[in-house]
Amino acid sequence: MPDARRRRTKATVKPQVENQQENSSSAPPASHSLLMRYVALIMVSMIGLVLWLLFIQRSGGDSGFGSFKLGALRGAKAPARDDMHKSPFFVADIPGKGMGLLASRKIKQGELLVREMPLFVVPRETTSSPSELVGGLVAQLSKKEQEAFFNLSYVNFPNHLDPDRDRNEVALAIFQTNAVGAGDNVGIFPRMARLNHGCSSAFNAVYSWREKERALYVYALRSINQGEELLTSYGNARQPRRERRARLAEHYGFECQCRVCSMAEEESQASDRRLEAINGAYERFASWGQGHISGTDAIAQVRKIWRLEDEEGYWSERGSLAADATLVAASHSDVLATQQWAELAAEWYAYELGGDSEQVAAMRAVAADGTRHARWKSRGGLVVGGP
Ligand SMILES: [Zn+2]
């Protein structure tokens, strides 16, 4: 069982996938290409699940939701033990934070950090008690896997329960604290769960789920120096400091002390202003979907977001942003811009999702021939401009 310090540390969840989801939902509705739907689906399932499980726990452990297929629950077992000697990181005790991951050598931007199968997954809907459900799945794990599971941190454990006696409730608390979206399910990934959180420009690792492989991938968003901590983002990394710290404290039980949250007041305000301007530009960009702004203006918003993110040092979600710009350019049948944005999207998708991801392949195909884009020529012809 985690000690109190670990509990405060909390580990895991939301990030990258969620960021991408937010990103795609703020993108033009017309961008509901297969690609964007795919990303949205990941996100929706993740949030829905976690919220739902929280809800049923608070309402006494019973739920009247849908049917429940216990037999299909058990996910693939943990992957063949990776060769840890090759690992670019190691687990360490981080002062003030509990456990975390430190780079064991210099890590390149776009380098694969973790490929992990879930210890187990839980479906979206169940009529069972969530604590019995999770407790039952944990009971089916090997001793070693159970050890890995119970070593994870947790928060929000009901005061009236005894963690030494109510083991299913502990299992549920661990699940709720550490679960990550895995397609239509949510799963537990003990290695990935060791990633601590960083806000805005502070996080350097992002994760995504590949449905075909039923595996979670974590990539280095930027180059990472030896000894530097690997950090990902738990949720919306573009909120102003006050809001994101309040959310992290409520959901994960820690006061964020990341580099961005620790900035001096003036510097922090400048960061908040940039983040708000980025969010505003995303909103305006999204209004292209309803035809409220021109394609030229939409592309101007993307360029603005890119510039502000350079200033902020925030690099996440650039693959999907450039893919959305590709969609705008293709819709207006701007051949050159379509090619350029698609190349940029492929480059940044490769950093975040892997060079062999479906998203990269899709963008490379569009870069080679813009007319293959699903939205090609769906709006009036216009030179919208490239990156
Ligand atoms: Zn922070």
From TrEMBL:
Q: Which Pfam families did the record assign? A: SET
Q: Where are the transmembrane segments?
A: 34-55
Q: Which keywords annotate this record?
A: Membrane, Transmembrane, Transmembrane helix
Keyword Glycoprotein included in the entry's annotation: no
Q: Where in this protein does the record put region Disordered? A: 1-29
Q: Which InterPro entries match?
A: SET_dom (IPR001214), SET_dom_sf (IPR046341), SET_domain_protein (IPR053185), TPR-like_helical_dom_sf (IPR011990)
Q: Basic residues bias: where?
A: 1-11
Query: Is the Membrane keyword given for this protein?
Result: yes
Question: What domain of life does the UniProt record list for this protein's source?
Answer: Eukaryota
Task: Give the SET domain ranges.
Answer: 87-235
Name-wise, this protein is SET domain-containing protein
Organism phylogeny: Eukaryota, Fungi, Dikarya, Basidiomycota, Agaricomycotina
